[in-house]
DNA sequence: ACCAGGGTAAACATGT
DNA sequence: GACATGTTTACCCTGG
């Protein structure tokens, strides 16, 4: 048994590494490549860039999806280690970090300039973009396959007009989707630009390509329109007339005769390089030449950033010369500028659509983070005021050291599929006091609140977040251990299984295993609510729910905050009252059956009962011998001690039979009274 | 300042 | 002896 569990632990550890390591590895690789790209004078075409960035987004999206499942993500991570993204039919070149990589998001976090709401919105927008890109990419691939198939057919069967038409249609569709992909990419650029403009994201010196391209391609339509007016003058009116839409839909029929067709944009054709933007450039140069010398939107890394140009200019004067000569005011440049405006406009529209879609998705998923109500912040998105300290707490790197190290790096928060809701937090168990306030959990401004548990649906919902986000769960070890045990089908787990549960449910516990495992063992031994039961297979740990309830600090009546929260927070949905539990136990009901736990109605009822009793019993606990603040008022009333009878329960599979006893130790921990547990003594 | 709860580290014992 | 498991103690931090 011991050997077996030991093997399990080892394999589990390896799984942990596989689960967390490749992920980081992938991200690090992405970052590295991005940075190396920024330092490389060579450039790739926009299409290739778009493909690569879309693959990045795909990777991230896959990661998000994969991580929703406990173990599949580990395998997927392994797969990601091999960089399957490079198999896409694009030339493998340098990657420009125009997709907001997790590192960048982490950077944002570290800069502590984002409010949680902002961050949440950004993350979700990014996620939505990634997913949409994935869809487009898949569709694009299908179109590509179809095109190739038809090409083959054509080769064998000879060319026929219909097939040619079909082929053309497919090609057109493909181009359209390519354009969509490019637009998605540019949307992300704009997204990033918005971040930059808001000062939320600073671009490191090693990544000059990013801001330049973003600036070049992510201009706000209003600015472009103004620019357009300045540059084109009388042409503007024609544009408006020409537009089929009220916006800047500059179709190819509208642009001038020398205008590039739509495909030229997405294919990044080597359009002749002369354009009217140079006028503006000159205008700017005349005003503040120095200012734009190193920050010209159209110049970066010795390369002209005019769309489709990429002419190498050794220095800024040569670039200016090139700009004046090649991108002068002519129809072609005008057309290019129009196309760019159109792209920007469509990006704006796309962004608004994506926002709407995001809202719909969130409302569908009952995500509460964007609710306008007070302090609906997700757990991981702490307020900026407390970000630093919380970050150190939440950082997996900070796990081994003491909580007094606020300088620890911020946790790389991987965006999880769900967001922590305040209601569900309290369903788990006691919130770790020192973290609860930092996490800005509105409901628990009183750290002594003891709303808890037995709401596995809610808990599972939050678990989805913690499975992916390396955020330290704000629950005590005892609560987590208990949750893990109660989630097990037999309400009992071996130590190793508890370990596995931790690593499975919390990305945070996939690191520093020695630390938290020690803490788990410590808590198991320390807290009386955890009962060790030996059977043939070995020792398993169970939860003495009454003991667990006893430790709950009860200051409900004395806490105006709590009272207020109770009134305003729909009673936390699910805590099962101790009274109800006791009643169930007395009636030989399966205390921890999944049915009872998964019944929201029952949980609500239990919660109401519990709250009422808490309020009533606060001052009626007549057990004078127990003045422990950790004692629940319920215990004075019931004095029911759920205890295990190992002799009665089947060694193999049967759930533990629960009998009630009348006596128990009042203290939850420290004074663990083993006389109360003759079973264990007997067994040991 | 004190206390309690919680986290972390570590020593130690025991069993495999 | 190595390792897993379990117990215990000590120290620290946080919040009341």
TrEMBL record:
Ranges of biased composition (kind: Acidic residues): 674-684
Residues of the DNA-binding region: 472-545
Compositional bias per record (Polar residues), positions renumbered to this chain: 1-17, 387-399
InterPro entries registered for this protein in UniProt: FH_FOXP1_P2, Fork_head_dom, FOXP, FOXP-CC, TF_fork_head_CS_2, WH-like_DNA-bd_sf, WH_DNA-bd_sf
Protein's UniProt name: Forkhead box protein P1 isoform X5
Low complexity bias: start-end ranges: 400-414, 621-633
Annotated source species: Xenopus laevis (African clawed frog)
Sequence ranges assigned to domain Fork-head in this UniProt record: 472-545
GO cellular component, one term: nucleus
Taxonomic lineage: Eukaryota, Metazoa, Chordata, Craniata, Vertebrata
């Amino acid at each position: 048994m011991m050997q077996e569990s030991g093997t399990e632990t080892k394999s589990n550890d390896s799984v942990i590494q596989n689960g967390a390591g490749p992920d980081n590895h992938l991200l690090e690789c992405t970052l590295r490549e991005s940075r190396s790209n920024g330092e490389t004078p060579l450039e790739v075409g926009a299409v290739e860039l778009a493909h690569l960035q879309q693959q990045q987004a795909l990777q991230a999206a896959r990661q998000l999806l994969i991580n929703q499942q406990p173990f599949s993500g580990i395998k997927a991570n392994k797969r990601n280690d091999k960089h399957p993204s490079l198999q896409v039919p694009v030339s493998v070149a340098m990657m420009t970090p125009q997709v907001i990589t997790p590192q960048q998001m982490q950077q944002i976090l570290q800069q502590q300039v984002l409010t949680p709401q902002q961050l949440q919105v950004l993350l979700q927008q990014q996620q939505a973009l990634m997913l949409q890109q994935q869809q487009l990419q898949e569709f694009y691939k299908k179109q590509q396959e179809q095109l190739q198939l038809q090409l083959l057919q054509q080769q064998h069967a000879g060319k026929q007009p219909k097939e040619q038409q079909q082929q053309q249609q497919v090609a057109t569709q493909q181009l359209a989707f390519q354009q969509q992909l490019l637009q998605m990419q540019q949307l992300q650029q704009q997204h990033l630009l918005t971040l930059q403009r808001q000062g939320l994201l600073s671009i490191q010196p090693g990544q000059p390509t990013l801001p330049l391209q973003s600036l070049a391609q992510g201009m706000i339509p209003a600015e472009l329109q103004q620019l357009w007016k300045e540059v084109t003058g009388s042409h503007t009116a024609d544009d408006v007339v020409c537009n089929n839409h009220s916006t800047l839909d500059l179709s190819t029929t509208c642009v001038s005769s020398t205008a590039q067709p739509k495909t030229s944009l997405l294919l990044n054709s080597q359009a002749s390089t002369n354009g009217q933007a140079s006028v503006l450039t000159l205008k700017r140069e005349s005003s503040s030449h120095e200012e734009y010398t190193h920050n010209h939107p159209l110049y970066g890394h010795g390369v002209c950033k005019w769309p489709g140009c990429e002419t190498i200019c050794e220095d800024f004067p040569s670039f200016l010369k090139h700009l004046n000569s090649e991108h002068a005011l002519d129809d072609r440049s005008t057309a290019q500028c129009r196309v760019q405006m159109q792209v920007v406009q469509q990006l704006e529209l796309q962004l608004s659509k994506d926002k709407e879609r995001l809202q719909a998705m969130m409302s569908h998923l009952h995500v509460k983070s964007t609710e306008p109500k007070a302090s609906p912040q997700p757990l991981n998105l702490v307020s900026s005021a407390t970000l630093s300290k919380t970050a150190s707490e939440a950082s997996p790197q900070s796990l081994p050291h003491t909580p007094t190290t606020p300088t620890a790096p911020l946790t790389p928060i991987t965006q999880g599929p769900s967001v922590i809701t305040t209601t569900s937090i309290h369903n788990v168990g006691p919130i770790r006091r020192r973290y609860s306030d930092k996490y800005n959990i509105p409901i628990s401004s009183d750290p002594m609140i003891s709303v808890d548990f037995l709401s596995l649906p809610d808990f599972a919902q939050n678990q989805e977040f913690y499975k992916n986000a390396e955020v330290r769960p704000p629950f005590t070890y005892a609560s987590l251990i208990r949750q893990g045990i109660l989630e097990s089908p037999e309400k009992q787990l071996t130590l190793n299984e508890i370990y596995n549960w931790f690593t499975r449910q919390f990305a945070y516990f996939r690191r520093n295993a020695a630390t938290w495992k020690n803490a788990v063992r410590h808590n198991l031994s320390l807290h009386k609510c955890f009962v060790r039961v030996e059977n043939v297979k070995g020792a398993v740990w169970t939860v003495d729910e009454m003991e667990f309830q006893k430790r709950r600090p009860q200051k409900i009546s004395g806490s105006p905050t709590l009272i207020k929260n109770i009134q305003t927070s729909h009673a936390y949905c699910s805590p099962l009252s101790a009274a109800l539990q006791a009643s169930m136990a007395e009636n030989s009901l399966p205390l921890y059956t999944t049915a009872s736990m998964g019944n929201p109605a029952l949980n609500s009822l239990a919660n109401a009962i519990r709250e009422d009793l808490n309020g009533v019993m606060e001052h009626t606990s007549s057990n004078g011998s127990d003045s422990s603040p950790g004692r629940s008022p319920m215990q004075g009333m019931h004095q029911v001690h759920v205890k295990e009878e190992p002799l009665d329960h089947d060694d193999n599979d049967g759930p533990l039979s629960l009998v009630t006893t009348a006596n128990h130790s009042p203290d939850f921990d420290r004074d663990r009274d083993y006389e109360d547990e003759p079973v264990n003594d007997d067994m040991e």
